[in-house]
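Per your request, structure below.
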């Protein structure tokens, strides 16, 4: 049995659910695109808020470390603080790209789903047209 990464499995499941929801939605394709765009905007803004809260927490903890550092060896503490700042800056950089990555992924899934809905609508229209022709032929032959 292959054990997959839980976040990856969750993401794949969420994408499949989103596609299924779009395909089965009673709304028009245009309305679905509006809904998806609104959700992307909301979650992007929410992600930025979480990122800001995380940055504030890190700053607060860094201030606490600085207060403790006044009682220790200054050079050693400066080195540790600089290392911590580098790690924090790296983490903030990683976190800041996450909302954009999610927005791009959601946009790609929405476009794929919209294309699928459009294809399904074309097939349904073709089938309806064929059924109408068959019915008209049956009526003419009577």
């Amino acid at each position: 049995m292959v054990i997959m990464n839980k976040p990856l499995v969750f993401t794949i499941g969420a994408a499949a659910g989103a596609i299924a929801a779009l395909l089965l939605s009673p709304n028009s394709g245009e309305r679905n695109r509006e809904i998806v765009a609104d959700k992307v905007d909301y979650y992007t803004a929410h992600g930025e808020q979480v990122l800001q809260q995380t940055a504030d927490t890190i700053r607060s903890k860094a201030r606490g470390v600085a207060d403790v550092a006044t009682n220790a060896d200054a050079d050693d503490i400066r080195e540790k603080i600089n290392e911590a700042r580098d790690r924090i800056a790296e983490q903030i950089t990683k976190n800041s790209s996450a909302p954009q990555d999610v927005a791009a992924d959601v946009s790609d899934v929405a476009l794929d789903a919209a294309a699928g809905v459009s294809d399904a609508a074309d097939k349904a229209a073709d089938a309806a047209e064929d059924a109408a022709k068959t019915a008209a032929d049956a009526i003419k032959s009577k």
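Residues 50-97 form one domain.

Regards,
D.
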